[in-house]
Amino acid sequence: MEFPKSIIDIENTAGLEKGTENNQTGSRGSQALLEMGHLSFHGNLFYNGGRGNTANGTVEDDQIAADVIFNPAFENSFDLDPKLSSANGIITPFPSADSPALRGEMTDSNGRGFFQDVEYRGAFAFGENWLKDWSVVDRKNIIEQPEPGKVTNIRAQQIPGTLQVEISFDLEIPANMKGNIQDVFLSEDGGSNYIHRCNYLSGPMHDLHSGRQVIVWDAGEDWPNREIPRGRIKIVIEVN
Questions:
Q1: How many Å apart are CA 10 and CA 25, to the nearest integer?
Q2: Is the pLDDT of residue 131 over 90?
């Protein structure tokens, strides 16, 4: 997402003579609260502000705000792509499998018990949409549903001299999650219908991580004496 101006504009009400005042700088309002440590930002990924992916560009060229917000102790970044998901060309608020938002999470250090500690930054985990089935946002299809895992680049090739088929594919899931192959289906008509389950499978099927995967289907056991010139493979993955 690209912002036309900077991402953060800290209000300084010094000219209006209202709000909390920082006696050392003369700032008032949110600017004073930020300078005095009463307002802070922790663990945020700021990106694509209209003034560039720099500390000053993120905060309207406010050097004081930049120094405070991007103090390393607060673990904010201004140039790290959050890698949000994209569905049909629409940016969604869900992190992709390799998003930095899926690591570097912060805990409720004050122990107030109000916040729930999670293993990601932001409002959404990878492949989860807590807005589904109850919110107006979901009913009006304002955002796209995230994919729990992504399987791409499927290739199926008969192993020479056998009736076995080597199936390889790319799997994309978060680093802190694992994938399990639940089902593999075959289409005889070039992908229009996947009605045949491949039963005789071997190779790694469980606790998979992102990367290229290879399994073997014994087509001779499932479909002896059959040729499938327009065959296509569909792989169903469970991510947890």
A1: 15
A2: no
